[in-house]
Amino acid sequence: MNPATHADQLRQEFNRWAEAGRGEGMEREHLPITLPVLELMCLAPDDHVLDAGCGNGWLCRLIASRLPRGRVAGMDISDEMVRRAAQANASMTNVRFFTGTIEAIPQPDRVFTKVISVESAYYWADPGRGLREVNRVLAPGGSAWILINYYRDNPHCHQWGPLLAVPTHLLSSQEWTSLLRQAGFRDVTPQRIPDPSPVPDVYTGRWFRDAAQLREFKREGALLLTGTKP
Ligand SMILES: C[S@@+](CC[C@H](N)C(=O)[O-])C[C@H]1O[C@@H](n2cnc3c(N)ncnc32)[C@H](O)[C@@H]1O
Question: If you placed Cys at 27, which of 17, 58, 117, 227 could pair as Cys (CB 3.0 to 4.6 Å)?
């Protein structure tokens, strides 16, 4: 697909998600897998963090509250997500938001100490290019934290692809690891982050066959990919 068409499709679809109030639902769903990642990140008080694909900005707010002398920037391709994120976090002095795509992050080289991205990377039109951009905006010694729930090694999410209105990449842990290495990262490590949140006895949504599959999906866990910029 033409990159401009793809970007436009993503922007429109996630603008619809924002208008439907799905940003808040994602906060509830992604918090249990994101909290362990924040612990692993060992945030420094003066870190400068980018949240790539920040949605409604809930994670930026959480990270900013842990950075007494640091700053957070949230970027999203959806201008409606960014508008809502900026509005909801207007009172925070160490958070800013901007519209942008991961394949051309509108920021100078080497400005961030950490980049986190939650449940976004499999939507990127060109994940390899996106990871090279993440590497470019990181300072030497900085680290990337890419968390995804949709990846080949977890068979309980494969049904999502056809249900989503935009193209996605169903890559394996090994393929993601190679992409991070090719993008210039060192010490690339894939790990699983199981979701400890409770599963209802009866599942009525459209993303899983039944409660048993949802339970298996959470037990397999999300895939966290980390890497350091030399
Ligand atoms: C499933 S949502 C997750 C949002 C947020 N990280 C959260 O956990 O609530 C995926 C987000 O990634 C954004 N996104 C997708 N592709 C993108 C790209 N190429 N560049 C920037 N943002 C992108 C979407 O607009 C959307 O807000």
Answer: 58
Q: Which domain holds residue 164?
A: 3-228
CA of 227 to the centre of ligand 1 (A): 20
- pTM equals 0.98
pLDDT, tens digit (0-9, with 9 covering 90-100), for 44-65: 999 999 999 999 999 999 999 9
CA of 77 from ligand 1 middle (Å) equals: 7
Q: What is the domain count for the chain?
A: 1
CA–CA dist 179, 184 (Å, integer): 9
Measured in whole angstroms, how far is the alpha carbon of residue 91 from the centre of its chain?
24
Nearest CA to ligand 1 atom 27: 55
Report which protein residue has its CA nearest ligand 1's atom 5: 55
* Ligand 1 touching residue 60 (CB < 6 A): no
Task: Write the CATH number for 8.
Answer: 3.40.50.150
What is the per-residue pLDDT across 174-209, written as a single tens digit (0 to 9) for each?
999 999 999 999 999 999 999 999 999 999 999 999
Mapping DSSP to helix (H, G, I), strand (E, B) and coil, where does residue 139 land? strand
If 0-12 CB within 10 Å is exposed, 13-18 middle and 19+ buried, where does residue 9 land? middle
